[in-house]
Amino acid sequence: EAVVRRIRIGTARRLLAAICFAVTSLMTVPAFATTKIQHLVTPGGIEAWFVQDATVPLVAMEYAFAGGAAQDPADKPGVGYMVASLLDEGAADLDSKTFRERLDRHAIELSFSIERDRFRGSLRMLKEHSGEAFDLLHLALTSPRFDADDVERIRSQIISELRRNSTNPNALAGRNFLKLAFDDHPYGRPSHGTLESIPPITTDDLRIYVRHVLARDGLKIAVVGDIEPAALAKLLDQTFGGLPAKGDLTPVADVVATKPPQRTFVPLDVPQTVVMFGGPGVKRHDPDFMAAYIDNHILGGGSLSSRLYREVREKRGLAYSVSQSLLWMDHSALFAGTTGTRADRAGESIDAINNVIQRFAEDGPTQKELDEAKSYLKGSQMLELDTSSKLATGLLQYQTDNLPIDYIEKRNSIVEAVTLDQAKAVAKRLWGHGLLTVVVGRAQAATQPAAAQPGATARPGAAQPAPHPAAH
Predict the structure, then answer these.
(1) 3-state helix, strand, coil in the chain (%, to 5)
(2) Rounded to 10 degrees, what is the CA torsion of 155, 160, 162, 166?
(3) 252-286 pLDDT, tens digit each
(4) Pairing mode, if any, of strands 58-66 and 219-225?
(5) C-alpha distances in angstroms, 340 versus 83, 86, 274, 309, 347?
(6) Mean pLDDT value across residues 180-199
(7) How far is residue 80's CA from residue 196's CA, in Å, rounded to a whole number?
(8) DSSP conformational letter for 5
(9) Which residues are within 8 A (CB) of 450 and not within 5 positions of it... i.e. 6 or more apart?
(10) How far apart are CA 392 and CA 398, in angstroms?
């Protein structure tokens, strides 16, 4: 659930954005199409995937440490999120105000975020300010201050966010869906914490998290931009070389999501009911992954041609949108979808979703649907990686998924190799067992569906704050 901390936008920052847009809008070929991805190893042993691109005088870096929200203490979910929220609030001899001023002076974008299995960071700057940017990042990672005033200010902000989410149907659906899917496993805990867990978190908790998670052995780095390899290697060593060689991570067990069908109802007096649905998915290195990825696009991948969109939105007018994604973590996987509908039509919407998914599980895609999905997915890759920041993000994702450095070149052939028989078999495997369903809304809308899932078990849900589940 990668929730990125604030990006400060001052006059200099807007100028940087304007330069980026003006130049990148003239580019017709993404960097990866013309530039080889280098496996850079620094003199200090830091490894990175690097694309040198002088088209724009920018450098973008994405990086991640193994760990993430799954490393929060069981009784204190939200520690990692607080760390991500505080690392740019002063470091070493720079208090929060001074640290921010140095960022803003040179339009440096520095942010941190938390996922289930990763603690992530993002750094973006003009080429001429790369030394300053990497120096500030080094201080943030190795010498965070965690001053009492800053800790309490961020704590108050997080508590306010959690209070708002306690009446946000989408947030409630996300939290309760993960709880339904994973129960007491670390993946089932709210990564942003709770109103009960955030107040007792101490500065010692934050420092212990940093010491255990921010280490070189779990570090993945992707850099794209206008910088020489030797200069980048020096900056990487200066930035990350002082971190501990090895982290001290608590082992996380593999887990299979709860077997469907089951349904949870969360009472909330709102005009629009939110429905979240899903079930066990496929992990990234499962042989069926690409077939599942294509099937998901056909069934509910967010495009206007998906089956769920056509049946729920276009034919029945039950919702403005409905979509579904594959979510994969290091130790489990899900497919998950969501929609919002009028309270008095929630039952009808749930039935329509169930019927579409059941038919897809039984029959699978048609050859025409498979061919069109392949064509779309092969072509869309170019658009997904058409800027330095997008490319760096993609390269980091491939690394954390333990894919080869030439995966970009191989990906379209892997898509093309999926057969209709494979797609049909995977459709039955993933969507043939019913759904885990979370309904957030008025009681009447949730308790009067036109036809319940066979064998579904209704479970009351607790109306508590929730982040969205992580979607890589």
Answers:
(1) 45, 20, 35
(2) 160
(3) 999 999 999 999 999 999 989 999 999 999 999 99
(4) antiparallel
(5) 33, 34, 4, 12, 12
(6) 97
(7) 16
(8) P
(9) 347, 348, 351
(10) 10
